[in-house]
Amino acid sequence: MKAYQNDTTSTGLSDFLLNCFVRAPNWQLWLSLPLSLLFLLAMGANAVLLVTIRMEASLHEPMYYLLSLLSLLDIVLCLTVIPKVLAIFWFDSKSISFSACFLQMFIMNSFLAMESCTFMVMAFDRYIAICHPLRYPSIINDQFVIKAAIFIWARNVFFPMPIPVLSAQLHYCRENVIENCICANMSVSRLSCDDITVNRLYQFAIGWTLLGSDLILIFLSYTLILRAVLRLKAEGAVAKALSTCSSHFILILFFSTILLVFVLTHVAKRKISPDVPVLLNVLHHVIPAALNPIVYGVRTQEIKQGIQRLLKKGWS
Predict the structure, then answer these.
(1) Is-contact 180 278, C-beta < 8 A?
(2) pTM of the model
(3) I need a surface site. Which of 44, 123, 180, 229 has the fewest CB within 10 A?
């Protein structure tokens, strides 16, 4: 197995080897087909959603702009992770350059945090729409979307940036084989000869601070929404109010559930196969991306009608 020897520095290291599912190599064959189908579904569905929102003037509203941002994040995450995983499965292309590995690490950490933050902003959007409907046009407007996008980008680039930087500064003087399908921070850092306590603590602190604060604010938003909905007296008002945010809530629940299962499998890693967290980590980059546009397309009437109009134009 390929490895680089260097006593004190990482100057001799030119690439890593991604060696995933070594304990269950048959997984690669069985996973390659559903993973490739999910990847194509995620790319196609998000592309259709972006084109629909771009072409339909009736969808040029803040809520749909935020949904477009979510689709862009999903596309980037999928393209960052899945093609390389499929190349490993199909062509045994395990090698990844030093710079490409840390770039992938940065994108994964930053864009997953951006996605969580986007869900939080969308929850705030639904809170204002249901709890303060008269103030909605003055609060949630195009300027709000621009400011929210800048905040999402700045927060989730600045704070996760030290993760790949700290990892890249370590000395890799032993082997270069990463026991993972992707360049996850701890999978890479544990190959180093240096003390990685700072890396571990920083990722733990940033992960729980960013994702944890987003989940708390999302939970608070939906608690206030539920309380406001239960006070509605008009006939059918409760069902109408809940339908406006049901799609969003389903996606947040799914995103959070996969993340929670991933964390729990790491906590209980001594009792389960090490390949399970690796599998969940890969799936977390493609399943939400495939489901997000589908759930919105099926449950949001305006998007469904917009897609139908585009299809009619395409056939005419």
Answers:
(1) yes
(2) 0.89
(3) 44
